[in-house]
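Q: What structure does this chain adopt?
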Amino acid sequence: MPDGSIILVEIARETLSRVTPDGRVDVIANIHGGPNGAALGPGGKMFVCNNGGFAWIKERGTLRPSLQSPDYVAGSIEIVDLNTGKVERLYSRCGDHTLRGPNDLVFDAHGGFWFTDLGKRRQRDMDRGFVYWARADGSEIREVIGPILTPNGVGLSPNGSTLYVAETETGRVWSWEITAPGEVRKRPWPSPHGGTLLAGLPGFVRLDSLAIAASGNVCVAALHSCSVVEIAADGSRIKHYPVPDMSVTNLCFGGSDMRTAYVTMSHEGHLGAMDWHEPGLPLNWQA
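A:
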């Protein structure tokens, strides 16, 4: 934010919160369910993916998400007024289908936004995921990509012509060419959903949210590998940057020169900052 603070979600506490430069945490809004990804949109409002809530595993003083919450109903997209904390529901379904577990979102330059719906897990089955595009004024929502296995992080290339999506369980990052607002060009079979594989990470690497550098490199929070993974825009290079936490879940770029990466470390419940070797990409509608 312009004052140097960071706005983030606390899923287990069910809040949208502000972390001030001196480390104080203030609650902006209470959002029942599971506030997940958040992004500034038109009018200075914060748009939040609500995954509907998790059951939590408590272990040695930490929390980690498990199956869907016992009181889970559905997922949704919420709008938060940052001045008043008022929460309004924007979308809870697309046509005949309820949203299951909206996870992360990114705004385009036209006032629309892309968001992933990872779905929910239960003891013996799990949902198939989808990627949606919607207008910020609530007038239209489209199912664009899917089914896709556990879509999580989502981002746009610097020129806005490429959509990137990270899959959690496969450790893969896919891309699509955007042909118009809310439309993509899809590759034929055997691509499982029309995407082009940018990178598939070896070993046990589960991917979470992502951010894009000004160069176009894709930077992905890599959960249990304790790192942020940088993938070249053409997929030719992959590099890990270590982060001291078992559940690295998200990052964003900020600072006066956009060379600070703010990283959420969710296993221990910390927000960290690290110098980055190149500027990050300013987001559309960023204050």
